[in-house]
Design brief:
163 residues, 26% strand, alpha+beta, four-stranded antiparallel sheet
Length: 163
């Protein structure tokens, strides 16, 4: 009886490994922060629970993307890019606000008041989604780190196709 040779595991590049760890850690930190927040809520409304559920889904998605990158599938690159695209733009306009960060945010943006106020933002895993907020801020921020991750994911995906 012939013994079969074990199949060698696919080698993951250090860049893909770093991106996988980054997405995994960002999702875990974000999920942990939101789970820590829940007991502090006083009579949360239905919309608050919807926001918490949405945050949990997005952070779980980031964790999934990290695990899939460890496996090195082509779908992992597509899903990871979608995860990063969701983090590129944060905005608040006419009472609607959106901000999702799983990991770090190196943001450059502008707040629209009587005059424009340019801001640089650094934050760790954060989430905000609101509709009809009373204190409607008007701002737009671009997460530069998410753009770098998109570039690296695309470059790495192209390199893996050429091998």
């Amino acid at each position: 009886m012939k013994q079969q040779q074990p199949i060698a595991p696919k080698r993951i590049s250090p860049l893909v490994l770093s991106l996988a760890i980054y997405q995994l850690a960002g999702g875990l930190i974000g999920l942990g922060l939101f789970l820590k927040l829940i007991p502090q809520l006083q009579n949360p409304s239905t919309s608050t629970w919807v926001g918490i559920a949405l945050a949990a889904v997005l952070y779980t998605f980031s964790i999934l993307c990290g695990f899939l990158l460890f496996q090195g599938t082509r779908r992992a690159f597509t899903l990871s890019m979608a995860n990063q695209i969701l983090q590129v733009l944060s905005f608040g306009i006419s009472g609607v606000a959106y901000n999702y960060v799983a990991g770090l945010k190196l943001g450059i943006g502008v707040e629209f008041w009587e005059s424009w106020l340019f801001k640089f933002r650094l934050s760790l895993s954060s989430f905000n989604f609101s509709v009809g907020a009373e204190n409607s801020l008007s701002f737009v921020t671009v997460n530069l780190l998410a753009l770098v991750c998109i570039y690296l994911l695309e470059r790495t995906r192209e390199d893996s196709k050429n091998r």
